[in-house]
């Protein structure tokens, strides 16, 4: 949670933040926005957060948060309003999910107008996507509060959904693309995580809107995440043994080429493989790999044990399906590098992650969906301990210099002040 030891100077309503997740919700985007708010508070901004009740872990409202549609709390630096996110039990039911996004976005808009005082002028409105519908909500709240909008893009939608086949209906695709372009055009500033995503977004806008697109990467907490001993309690807890462990941690979905991990486990019986996380593809992957004694699955670990999880892996993998490298940035790569562990990425060439790995020396990238290249890269990294340690150290140094929370917070604070003028 953002620091509350001292209240920010009262300069008015301050910044309104509309986001789908916020601490204590453990969604990756919630961790990102919580720290951005923390950094803005450190720089003297008042902030009013409108978010959802915690629901990410099991796709339902967590115990202790049920019973109310809206929960609001005042803080030393502003306020937090938590809303029912209208989650659906079936993630593959796109119409149901879309209806939930629309309902949540409408409720967020209402409370965005209320936060800090009904319709009072705000310094800025920051809206986060996904869901894409929050872009329109953020613009409407900003206009009614005589303010500017920053649209924070974590994943470019609907591109990723189209590439993975999650959306195939042409009418739905057309409507989603129209909503996407409209959201970008309406925002006073669009922030994306990499140069790849900036090119993607600018390609959907007229030239006069290109200047509104800004690259501000997600950060990693390099103080909280540090290189650790590989003999972690988590390794013992899961019975992974003392040998080398190849780890994938994160969403177990259809955007990730986790079939590569199964192929590598089949080809490297002397190495232990761990897929740590949950998602729509987990059940089918577990069934496909049930015959592999060296393949293990585990659910999401508590946020305070992230450093322990990262230290458990001797080599981490970031596999992403072909075509998704320019529309989705696996921000977990920053955390892996902060932990001083080498990365083997299977991802589109010349995109953000391969460029980052090359600049830092923090690992290697191979073409996406190429099992032979992926297995060869893993084998080489496992067999050459000195190279693996050198890659881990190089990645750590690069992240400390380029992706600290303070640097990211300063970029957002500067952008807010520029839009206020």
TrEMBL record:
Q: Does the keyword Transmembrane apply?
A: no
What are the entry keywords? Glycosyltransferase, Transferase
Supply the enzyme class, top level. transferase
Database matches in SUPFAM superfamilies = UDP-Glycosyltransferase/glycogen phosphorylase
> Which ranges does the record mark as transmembrane?
none
According to the record, the signal peptide region is: none
A Gene Ontology biological process noted in the UniProt record is:
carbohydrate derivative biosynthetic process
EC number(s) on record?
A: 2.4.-.-
The family database entries (InterPro entries) matched by this protein are listed as: Glyco_trans_4-like_N, Glycosyltransferase_grp1
User: Entry's Gene3D superfamilies?
Assistant: Glycogen Phosphorylase B (3.40.50.2000)
Q: Which residues form the Glycosyltransferase subfamily 4-like N-terminal domain?
A: 30-218
* Source species: Ilumatobacter coccineus (strain NBRC 103263 / KCTC 29153 / YM16-304)
UniProt cross-references to Pfam families, sorted A to Z: Glyco_trans_1_4, Glyco_trans_4_4
The residue stretches assigned to a coiled coil in this entry are none
Its recorded name reads Putative glycosyltransferase
Q: What is the lineage of its organism?
A: Bacteria, Bacillati, Actinomycetota, Acidimicrobiia, Acidimicrobiales
Matching entries from PANTHER family are given as: SULFOQUINOVOSYL TRANSFERASE SQD2 (PTHR45947:SF3)
A GO molecular function term, named singly, is: hexosyltransferase activity
